[in-house]
């Protein structure tokens, strides 16, 4: 805005200087118009230049309107230069269509004026005006293309920033879901074992104190294991470098130990492992362990007394197939596995993370079955 005002001020000063020279020169054959005509016309030509960026179309046609009498009275050079500036402005800041309409309007005005006022030099005048308009049009095209390029770059950077923020939010949500799965698997299994053992100890404390004592020891050991797992998870969350945590994660090779712990709680578990599962990828091995752990935890909570469970793990080719079933006789179980729906949801999420699948539901002959298939490599 300041630069445009400066241009307008310079053109005004040049035209006023030329007008004063014309007035004070007695041998000049032309008689200048009075100042109260010349000065307003000159102002009308140059003032719109100061507003050409904010109101480009209105400023251009205001310049044309005042430029016609200004050029007819030969009051200076402002009408020609402001017209060229208007052509450049319309092409660069508005559109080619507006620029073309403005050039056509000026061509008509200039052609009529040259024919009536400068017939002897008409061709030369029209060539000069055409060259100046062409130069201003080319400059407008160049500046307009550069402005469009910068606008596209800014838009692309804004989109990239939005995409980056979206990816960051997705990463945070995925990490929160992973932490929630780990916490649920650890806490739900431990609490389920503790509840079952506590109920058994309450029944046996008077009639079978040895059995109650064994249940209390199981509660104590399970609680310590859960605390250890929770401390490990909290240590990972607090540490900036996950490599600082060297506690081994359970995997498929720990299934025998898991089955033994569940048997100690009072749920008979038959474990069948086909194929080598000790060398599974760490993530897949942890997923297998957690799915089996959650399925047995749900059996403990929902299947009722006298239930038996069977765990089958088979490595065939590049996949690991899991089947965990029981013969529980409780009529209806919640489809979500645990209250709140976190159990079955967590198992499905673990399977989907590796591109696998998981199905769970009642068996026709009674009981519950969980089927899962995990690929060893990402699909």
Automatic annotation (TrEMBL):
It comes from the Bacteria. Residues 175-240 form the Signal transduction histidine kinase subgroup 3 dimerisation and phosphoacceptor domain. The keyword Cytoplasm does not apply. GO terms for molecular function: ATP binding; phosphorelay sensor kinase activity; protein dimerization activity. The chain crosses the membrane at residues 6-23, 35-51, 71-93, 100-116, 122-140. It catalyses: ATP + protein L-histidine = ADP + protein N-phospho-L-histidine. Residues 286-377 form the Histidine kinase/HSP90-like ATPase domain. Residues 12-147 form the DUF7134 domain. It is an enzyme of class 2 (transferase). Gene3D superfamilies: 1.20.5.1930, Histidine kinase-like ATPase, C-terminal domain (3.30.565.10). Its EC number is 2.7.13.3. GO terms for cellular component: membrane. Keywords: ATP-binding, Kinase, Membrane, Nucleotide-binding, Phosphoprotein, Transferase, Transmembrane, Transmembrane helix, Two-component regulatory system. InterPro entries: DUF7134, HATPase_C_sf, HATPase_dom, Sensor_HK_TwoCompSys, Sig_transdc_His_kin_sub3_dim/P. PANTHER family: NITRATE/NITRITE SENSOR PROTEIN NARX-RELATED, NITRATE_NITRITE SENSOR PROTEIN NARQ. This is histidine kinase. It comes from Actinophytocola xanthii.
């Amino acid at each position: 805005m300041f630069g445009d005002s400066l241009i307008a001020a310079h053109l005004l000063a040049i035209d006023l200087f030329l007008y004063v020279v014309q007035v004070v020169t007695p041998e000049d054959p032309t008689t200048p118009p009075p100042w109260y005509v010349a000065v307003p016309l000159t102002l009308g030509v140059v003032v719109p230049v100061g507003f050409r960026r904010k109101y480009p179309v209105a400023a251009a046609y205001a310049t044309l309107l005042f430029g016609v009498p200004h050029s007819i009275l030969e009051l200076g050079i402002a009408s020609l230069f402001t017209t060229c500036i208007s052509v450049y402005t319309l092409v660069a800041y508005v559109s080619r269509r507006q620029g073309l309409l403005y050039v056509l309007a000026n061509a008509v005005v200039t052609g009529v004026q040259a024919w009536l006022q400068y017939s002897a030099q008409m061709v030369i005048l029209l060539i000069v005006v055409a060259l100046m308009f062409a130069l201003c049009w080319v400059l407008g095209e160049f500046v307009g293309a550069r402005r469009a390029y910068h606008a596209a770059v800014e838009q692309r950077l804004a989109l990239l920033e939005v995409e980056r923020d979206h990816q960051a939010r997705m990463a945070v949500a995925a990490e929160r879901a992973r932490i929630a799965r780990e916490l649920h698997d650890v806490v739900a299994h431990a609490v389920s074992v503790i509840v079952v053992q506590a109920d058994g100890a309450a029944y046996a404390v008077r009639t079978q104190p040895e059995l109650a004592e064994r249940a209390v020891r199981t509660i104590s050991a399970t609680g310590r294991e859960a605390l250890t797992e929770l401390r490990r998870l909290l240590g990972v969350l607090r540490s900036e470098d996950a490599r600082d945590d060297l506690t081994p994660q359970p995997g498929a090779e720990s299934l025998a130990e898991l089955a033994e712990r569940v048997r100690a709680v009072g749920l008979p578990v038959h474990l069948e492992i086909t194929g080598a599962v000790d060398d599974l990828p760490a993530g897949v091995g942890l997923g297998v362990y957690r799915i089996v752990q959650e399925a047995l935890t749900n059996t403990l909570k929902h299947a009722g007394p006298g239930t038996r469970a069977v765990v089958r793990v088979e490595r065939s080719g590049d996949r690991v197939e899991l089947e965990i079933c029981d013969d529980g006789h409780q009529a209806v179980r919640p489809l979500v596995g645990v209250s709140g729906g976190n159990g079955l949801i967590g198992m499905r999420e673990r399977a989907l993370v590796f591109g696998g699948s998981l199905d769970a539901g009642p068996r026709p002959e009674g009981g519950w079955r969980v089927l899962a298939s995990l690929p060893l490599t990402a699909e």
